[in-house]
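Internal ticket #5521
Category: modeling
Description: The requester needs a full-assembly model to guide mutagenesis choices. All entity lines are attached below as received. Residue total reported by intake: 188.
Assigned to: D.W.
Attached entities:
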Amino acid sequence: MTDGLVIPELDAGPFLLRPFRAGDLPLLAEAAADPYIPVISSVPVPYSEADGLAFVQRQHDRAREGVGYSLAIVDRAEDRAVGQIGLWVTELAEGRAATGYWIAPSGRGRGAAGHALAAVARFALTDLAIPRVHLHVEPWNTASVRTAERAGFRREGLLRSWMELGGTRRDMLLFARLAADEPSPAAP
Ligand SMILES: CC(C)(COP(=O)(O)OP(=O)(O)OC[C@H]1O[C@@H](n2cnc3c(N)ncnc32)[C@H](O)[C@@H]1OP(=O)(O)O)[C@@H](O)C(=O)NCCC(=O)NCCS
């Protein structure tokens, strides 16, 4: 029996990362109407308020079950959730974790995912001392490639026909950021 993971609050500059709550349902309704977000996430389609609440509950369940941390990305200026980022730790025994993110259309264009990804990478590599965090991005997804690069992730290669999404086999670019690449803390 485990007590599970505690979802943190993380500073991401103009954004705050925090656990999901019922007040985030407008974000989920918007995300459900996006053509790609439901393909890469468990955002429910068709959307209903009950499905939205179940999504919020699932994010907390994943921490309780030790699967990982699912965080809402909140725009501090507007005090509203604009997206989601996850840190999945089921391969922790091998010294690696996976991440992924989405931003609803109305929150895009301000680098929210890049700020969130940099904050989650710091949390994973420094606070949790995980050696490696990786991320899969479809090759056409320039906005996500830019996000990964801005957050200090390095492109490692193309995984051909890596997985099925939305009924189609997809190639994936593999990106990673390593604890070994982090600048060492200044000597006292
Ligand atoms: C990928 C995503 C999270 C980025 O959202 P965001 O943080 O608002 O990103 P921004 O719009 O601020 O753009 C980030 C960078 O990509 C660039 N960019 C954005 N859209 C682009 C496009 N269509 N073509 C080329 N470049 C683009 C921006 O110019 C910016 O570049 P910069 O860092 O050099 O300034 C968002 O588009 C999204 O949620 N898409 C659907 C879900 C998804 O793809 N998730 C990632 C799966 S790996």
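Resolution: model delivered.
Comment from assignee: The CA atoms of residues 91 and 99 lie 12 Å apart.
Ticket closed.
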